Amino acid sequence: MRRKAKVILLVAVALLMAGCDGVQSALAPEGLHAERSAFLFWTMAIGATAIFVALIGLTAFALLAPRRSRRWMAQQPMLFGAGVVFPVVTLSFLLVYGFVVTGAPAPGGGDARSIRIAVDGRRWWWQVTYWDEDNLPVVTANELRIPAGQTVAIELTSADVIHSFWIPKLAGKLDMIPGRVNVLTLNARGTGVMRGQCAEYCGGAHALMSFNVVVMTPEAFRAWLRQERSPAQAPANSLARQGKALFFTAGCSACHAIRGTAAANELGPDLTHVGGRTSIGAATLGVDKADFARWISDNQRIKPGNLMPDYGIFTPDQLEALASYLAGLQ
Predict the structure, then answer these.
(1) What is the membrane topology listed in the Swiss-Prot or TrEMBL record (predicted)?
(2) Tens of pLDDT along 172-222?
(3) Which residues have CB under 8 Å from 321's CB, separation 6+?
(4) Predicted model pTM
(5) What's the CATH superfamily of 238-327?
(6) C-alpha distances in Å from residue 216, one per residue of 35, 54, 229
């Protein structure tokens, strides 16, 4: 029985420790603001644990010690000090300390205004707009790319309901409110891929309203942005050309935009370079042909409640052609 209890305890500890790492863990920070939040959390957690242990010790002493030894605990100075002075001083210190730690400006990293990015929360996906070196907008969706080591200001708003933008490894949450622009400052320490999430219940497919954050070197980011502002490339083979024709005849262009073609609507995500992203469906599936085919034909099962209907009208050959065209948009 004792051996079984030890196994259960070890499994529980392992599960708890596993939650401290990963692409969406606030306790494995990769940005300056997330590091401050994690440091504040550990400071408060350690302090709270120490106070809890001390309280348990005092309680045990009060219950088990001889009456003469614990008489001092009932005296007025002890009651006033432990019941009034200690909580007031401790909580006031933590309040001021929290403001200082989380409110300090990010050191260095360049001018945040030099890289302008806006994220617009939709049901249930993300429209992301970059402004290039010529101050021209470049629209993409469901993925955020930023340069490492530079301070970036993200303008956040919503087109419909209140969403909440959260990248646990980089910064805290910030609401996205219709008619209002809130600005979140990010500064990623190193390159890599991490995950963000809508942290405000917004109905329907809220639980699957996620996105990937790709942190790149500044040089790679500039090269990617130059590529991203270019029109969609022409289909590479006959199968993809059939898929492009099907994209328009089946009505896909009524909701989506593909720069360089007649498709220019914004009801759904921009698909100009969708094949070059890390995911589709707001970080729900990958970007190979099989993923595109699954999403087109069965997206309501994959992401229930999203605003795109299932397209079960396509034959397997048509579905392959359309998926080939979309996967080739890189």
Answers:
(1) Multi-pass membrane protein
(2) 899 999 999 999 999 998 999 999 999 999 998 999 999 999 999 999 999
(3) 239, 240, 242, 243, 246
(4) 0.82
(5) Cupredoxins -  blue copper proteins (2.60.40.420)
(6) 19, 47, 17
